Amino acid sequence: MLKNTPNLPEILRPSDMTAQEYIYQRLRNSIMLGLIAPGNPITIRGLAEVLNTSPTPVREALRRLSTEHALKLLPNRRIVVPQMTPDRFKELILLRVTLEEHAARAALPFITERLVDQVTVLDLKLDQAVEDENRDQLIKINQQFHRSIYTANPDQVIMPMIESIWLQLGPFTRIAARNVKELYVVDHHKEVIAALRQRDETALLNSIAADIKGGVGHLHADALERILG
Amino acid sequence: MLKNTPNLPEILRPSDMTAQEYIYQRLRNSIMLGLIAPGNPITIRGLAEVLNTSPTPVREALRRLSTEHALKLLPNRRIVVPQMTPDRFKELILLRVTLEEHAARAALPFITERLVDQVTVLDLKLDQAVEDENRDQLIKINQQFHRSIYTANPDQVIMPMIESIWLQLGPFTRIAARNVKELYVVDHHKEVIAALRQRDETALLNSIAADIKGGVGHLHADALERILG
DNA sequence: TCTATCTTTTTGTGATATCATTTTCAAAAC
DNA sequence: GTTTTGAAAATGATATCACAAAAAGATAGA
Q1: What's the predicted TM-score (pTM) here?
Q2: Domains in chain B: ranges and CATH
Q3: What SS3 state is found at B40?
Q4: Rounded to a whole number, what is the distance in Å from the CA of A202 to chain B's nearest CA?
Q5: Which of B18, B23, B67 would you mutate first to test chain A, the one with the most A CBs within 10 A?
Q6: How far is B107 from A182, CA to CA, in rounded Å?
Q7: Is the pLDDT of residue A4 over 80?
Q8: Higher confidence at residue B182 or residue A195?
Q9: B18 beta carbon < 7 A from strand C?
């Protein structure tokens, strides 16, 4: 029996997707949803066995995730999901605000009515996920909501960085929110949509910052110490 | 004879550095200095032969660089340094300003007199590099200058992202600046140092933004079209 | 001279083999 | 009962091998 077998939900695999890419996507998805516990080692051979492949593509996928700081290589060459600290958490949230404000500002000129409609539909799905207390779905839809706004800008260099922040926050999100409703005390998405409709930059940036800080971002030092310690 | 053999200056290799890591660092260095021409394909076997290793560690290094968007995997699986476009360039510069302003703001509380002294020394070295018209040295020292400021903040999540931007701008920097002095029309580093000494946040952010925009960042659409087209 | 088709070579991907290091775990020593 | 030690197993790193897809060249036809 394998020890520490991580929880790796299956995902869609297009026929032309390489093994390495598929493994990468699948691991990424698991980390983003906080399904891999920080600290306990991930082994190449263990994953290869679970995924029914050879170690080669697994190694490459792990390296990619390390480069994005979703995984960490310890000095003894062990691979783990990094542990969160209150200071690192604070840095991640502040950087997330900066990056997403920047992305929103750059995307605003490209926002169409059609896009706002799409975003509105996503917000409805999000409400449903909260209603259902479906945390995985909530995380996914919330990311889609943000992503679909920022990618309106066709010249993308920032989105991969935002995704990297999401990845780094992923493992913590699950730990922090004991229930879904705790994650979304206040929903700022309606304000975001309103700002988009009016092409109001200031309101857009404010509501996005509020959304980030109001989600997991609202956790303060004392709460963090409790959760992380 | 190998075609397209890239220019890969040797770098320091600690005895405990893995082959993969060494290859990664060496390629990274070359890309950062603009020594690998955008567009023409890099082959795994070709690099392995030049570096006297097997394809395995080369592949991993290339994957890491792709993840950082320093390299691009084309649909036909060819690997190249991505081509710059005027729009992408503009996005990269704007994002660089945002990220480095953020990093500088976060680092300011940790700035010590000792650090300012170190930065001052780097600035002198930088002047020397301009004097010598040593472009590679200039690029390296300039990065050290910025890096040493931002890493004063011990909780680092932003530095890797800034490095990724530098990497993406690297190939272009070389093409754009036909001579070193063109790269540094105005030197804003003295202003940065003064702002650091006075712990003046506003002045610090302004001088850093000016430094970025005054370097390669000053190139405007028409100049870019000329260079890139 | 140019284009189209077929063959050869090169290339990326993934599996397997090998080696050195690290971890594990049980027996021995305290 | 706790620590030390040492053999066995597991693991990461790299080299090599096998295969299919893509690129490059060569040949034939217009």
Answers
A1: 0.92
A2: 19-80 (1.10.10.10), 86-220 (1.20.120.530)
A3: coil
A4: 17
A5: B67
A6: 32
A7: no
A8: A195
A9: no
